[in-house]
Amino acid sequence: MTVPIEYVLLGASILLLASIASSKIASRLGIPALLLFLVVGMLAGSEGVGGLYFSDALFAQSLGVVALVFILFAGGLDTHWTSVRPVLAMGLSLATVGVLISATLVGIFAVLVLGFTLLEGLLLGAIVSSTDAAAVFAVLRSRGIKLKDGLAPLVELESGSNDPMAVFLTVGLTELVAHSEEISASFSNAGPDGVGAVALSLLGLAPEFLIEMGVGSVMGLLLGRLIVIIVNRIRLDYEGLYPVLTTSLMLLVYGGTAFFHGNGFLAVYIAGLVVGNSDFVHKRSLTRFHDGFAWLMQVAMFLVLGLLVFPSQIVPVVGSGLVVALFVMILARPISVFAALAFSRLGWREKTFISWVGLRGAVPIILATFPLLSGIQQAGTIFNLVFFIVLFSVLLQGTSLGQAAQWLKVEAAGRSLTTHHYPLEYVPTIGEESRRVEFVVPVGSEVAGR
């Protein structure tokens, strides 16, 4: 039976309003809003009070991909190159070497503990290898915590740039798992349990990885500069068309890069970084538009992913999910961080905090839909495991970030001083030494109260 569009719009508006209201609750409780967005979706689902049946993994995946494009572009726009440049090497190491090590460790653990095949275990590891910066900074801001110089940009850069690596590994490993029998048969000299075949198959992904990342980086840089030129020179008669223009160009970056076999997510993030660190007309309004639209896409994505989950299917994997989640938090993530930052100047306190700050967000859940759509044997188990790991990560790590920052002494001198309810708007001019600084006016000062 076809549902009238009026009912669809009514339901969508109610879910969006419920999500916005839950964000206020999340801020007061000091937990990431995404957790409550997912909960709202689950409550509205077929096994919740809403009773809305939804099982379209393809739609959820498609929406997730589009949402990630908007989120990554907005994240690039909001990233200041001056703060990122000193930590660029460390961020890229975490986003590549760190992700690879984490995925490998989780894969081996899944083989030994869950009885997965090596490829299935590596696929699970790849899916849960990316982190969520939005969740981290939402918690830090709600608690008024300021990190020491370099830590905040490093965490932001890593989480903004590790999604492409996780996507590449997930897509590649999904294909390998789907054709695992053919792969094993094609390597007659494979080692025990087909380990030789797996190793050779993984090595075969290396050239594709270099091509995707190389093309994505170049396209992001070139098209980012092209966006700035077009926006500054087109001189549209209607200001309202500029958001349409930048949105069209952003989608062109993703689609064009994918057409040339590059990583579109990496290209979009780099393009956003280039645009955000350039001067262009209507910068304030365009930045605000993309930030708002990215929030809309985040809420929509979390709601749909919540609707996609059947809580009754999560219960059987709680035990194994808890074991894997703890392994990721306590061993896999710290080992990967310390290894990726082995040659950095950071001390053990900073590295430990970066290890604990690796919250899992919506990206792993989106990536878990790839095995679902490929029809591999363990797809349902992997999806439910990933969903539980994300929920547990956000609940445990998200609520303890403030305490962890205090214990590890990685807070900057003094907490955030912002007490106003409406954030002050500030857009620095590129090339100028301008910045916003907050400070306390001492009691008795001549400027007190002025």
Labels describing this entry:
single chain, 450 residues, mainly alpha, 21 helices, 70% helix, globular
Supply the helix-strand structural class.
Answer: mainly alpha
Rg, rounded, reads 22 Å
The amount of helix comes to over 70%
Shape: globular
Examine the secondary-structure arrangement and name the CATH architecture. Answer: Up-down Bundle
Low-confidence stretches: 186-192, 417-422
Instruction: Provide the CATH topology.
Output: Na+/H+ antiporter like fold
Task: Identify the CATH class.
Answer: Mainly Alpha
Largest sheet descriptor: none
Distance between the termini: 64 Å
Strand content range: under 5%
Notes on the structure:
- The chain has 450 residues and is mostly helical.
- It has one domain: Up-down Bundle (Na+/H+ antiporter like fold).
- It contains 21 helices and no strands.
- Helix 3 runs parallel beside helix 14.
- The protein is globular, with a radius of gyration of 22 Å.
